[in-house]
Each structure stands twice: as C-alpha cells, then as structure tokens.
C-alpha cells in the first residue's frame, strides 16, 4: 500500500532550538509542588483545582502535555492512609473516644488531607515529568522571562545544558 504525502519533508526546515537550561529535578518538583511553573517558577501551574493551564503565563512553557494520570491519587492515598491509620489506632487503643467523634473526625480528617495534598502532589509529579523530559516535556523549554537568549542553528549540535540533565 502506497501512502502519498501532500507536502515534502524538508529536514533543514526545523525551527531553531534555544539553549535554555532545564530546571533540575528537586527544584522543579518543589516549584510545581507549590503550584508554580516547573520551568520558571513564576507562572501558575493550575488554572483551577487539578486542571493545569495550557501554557505558563510567564514563560510560555506548554504545561498540559503531562501524563500524571492516577499517580498523584496513589501517592496521596498512601500518605493519608498511613497518617490517618496511625491516628485511628493510637486514639482508639489509648482513649475512650465517643462514637460520634470517630464517625465525624476520621472521615473529615481524611477528606481534608486529600483535598489539601492532591493538587500539590499532582504538581510535583508534573515537575518530575518536566525535569526528566517525559511525555509532553520532551521539547526544549522556552527561554525564561528576562533571560538572555542563545539561538542555535539547525546544523549545530544540541546545547550541552539541554542533554540529559536531571
Ligand atoms: Zn513558566
């Protein structure tokens, strides 16, 4: 079967790359845990609860290419389960806790911790994917606001700061 393309592919038509150093792993995860852009740290990562913005408003970095999927809820369930489980065992074994306190306190505490942690943990997962070039973060990031640009021609090798930094 022959597939014809409507336009010729020109390898020299590649857009010029920009030598921009990617934020390292821990700072990128910390910035995005604080719901900031993992690249520049200035723009907001989320437009509303758990919904990432399409682009960073400060540097233009594409933010919606992540694949956080179910990993943030797994992390939150693991952490909150251990905290609340420990507290339930400690209080129920050590004190005579009234039933109405148990019925209201533990579900409320669980829901509160989940609501508090889910978005920052999703941000940290997005920061991890950004720093390790996973999924939608494989392309070189745009220059940071106020940073001096260094254009690289299509025939030049990739900038050293842009290769495999974690
Ligand atoms: Zn940004």
Automatic annotation (TrEMBL):
Protein keywords: Membrane, Transmembrane, Transmembrane helix
Transmembrane segments: 71-91, 97-118
UniProt cross-references to InterPro entries, sorted A to Z: DUF983 (IPR009325)
Disordered: annotated segments: 139-166
Pfam families: DUF983
Protein name: DUF983 domain-containing protein
Organism: Methylobacterium gnaphalii
